[in-house]
Specification:
The chain has 171 residues and is an alpha+beta fold. The chain has 5 helices and 5 strands. The radius of gyration is 21 Å and the shape is globular.
């Protein structure tokens, strides 16, 4: 399952047409309150559009997620579109998969972007980008494996306790 954004304009347009003109196969509603934010999600699934390029022939389902969020008196209303090669008729399965993706986004990509400044790295030649990404993943996994929920706190802790950090490496 992948999210479809504006960088695939023809596919996105076909999906939006399908969502606006076809009845959904299944709908799943969720309502969560967390960290002072109320979020309602409506997940609808549809069959794959008939008018899409052969490049997308593996699409079995289109997923439309409508999010209504409110926090501190401010609200937002967004629409997100996904495609999947899974041929399920249960919207709840797709809703759980999408929520699971956000867990990865928050626990890995956000850490790499914000805490480890991966996007602002000056490295761009050879295998440097891949090597640095692997090393950053190793650091995150080591910190999580040692019981740190916050990678920032782990970095602060180990910058003052280098000998302790070295005990976790085998030679």
């Amino acid at each position: 399952m992948i999210q479809v954004k504006a960088n695939q304009p023809n596919l996105l347009q076909s999906i939006k047409e399908t969502v606006s003109t076809q009845p959904s196969i299944s709908t799943f509603f969720s309502d969560e309150r967390s960290r002072g934010r109320q979020e309602k999600r409506i997940t609808n699934i549809f069959p794959a559009p008939s008018n899409i390029s052969e490049d997308w022939s593996g699409i079995k389902r289109v997923i439309h997620v409508e999010r209504l969020t409110s926090k501190n008196g401010e609200s937002s209303h967004t629409h997100h579109y996904y495609i999947s090669s899974l041929c399920s008729n249960e919207a709840q399965i797709f809703a759980k998969g999408i929520r699971g993706h956000w867990s990865i986004e928050n626990r890995l990509h956000w850490v790499k972007d914000v805490i480890q400044h991966e996007d602002s790295s000056g490295i761009s030649k050879g295998n440097g980008v891949e090597t640095l990404s692997i090393l950053k993943n190793l650091a995150i996994n080591l910190c999580r494996g040692l019981g740190f929920d916050s990678i920032k706190e782990a970095g602060i802790h180990f910058s003052s306790n280098v000998k302790e950090l070295l005990l976790h490496f085998r030679t």
